[in-house]
Request: fold
Amino acid sequence: MSLLRVSVWRGGASGEFRAYEVPRLESQTVLDVVTYIQRSLDSTLSYRFACRVGMCGSCAMTVNGKARWTCRTHVAKVADNDWLEIAPLANLPVIKDLVADMSRFFDKWVQAKGRFYGTRTRADDFARVPPGSPQRQAVDAAIECIGCGVCYSACDVVTWNPAYLGPAALNRAWTLVNDVRDTARVARLAAVAGDAGCHACHTHMNCTERCPKNLVPTASIAGLKRSVAAAALKGEL
Ligand code: SF4
Ligand code: SF4
Ligand code: FES
Reply:
């Protein structure tokens, strides 16, 4: 049976890689490898997953240097001479082993006013936006984000400037700026206009290259830059 050599991050920020040998199987995913290690070699290994089908985003880790969903990444695609290095997501504190602390990531969604501010109550009918309308299509372009953190982990600007809101929070803000039912447009543009907001993006595209949902946060951020400039010219900010 052929074996895969796997280096896995163990411990917190000052931990180290530990080596394991895992049997190679057909159609094996990186998450299968991590699960094998935890169930058969070392039960103290901590990691996260839930759906195993690319819906929850909780299995995101750094695999041979790149952030990925491990449940949707086949070993055959990423192994380098039967070797894998698996680490927690970059740009986030490590809780233990492969588990990153996502608090900072989601705090930035709050800072970017990443929630919907409507006017209707539960007694009102649904506020419909026709599926074919330009307004709805503008929202659709960015709405499928599942908050996995892959783009955030891949963004160099977050590494240099930990205050930067990052691609996912800004992509969410852009989705809401385009939502015709939302009432917090100007406040949201003000929230993303500061030094750590959309203008800090250097358009490197790492986020867009890595997003497993094929979203384009770089375009969302460019949209925010235009909208912030237009709002400033109108004296709204
Ligand atoms: S934009 Fe893509 S990579 Fe970033 S959090 Fe959303 S789904 Fe994940
Ligand atoms: S395009 Fe902007 S948000 Fe995306 S990785 Fe580059 S600097 Fe970060
Ligand atoms: S376990 Fe849910 S996306 Fe991988």
Remarks:
- The domain at 3-100 is CATH 3.10.20.30 (Ubiquitin-like (UB roll)).
- The mean pLDDT is 97.
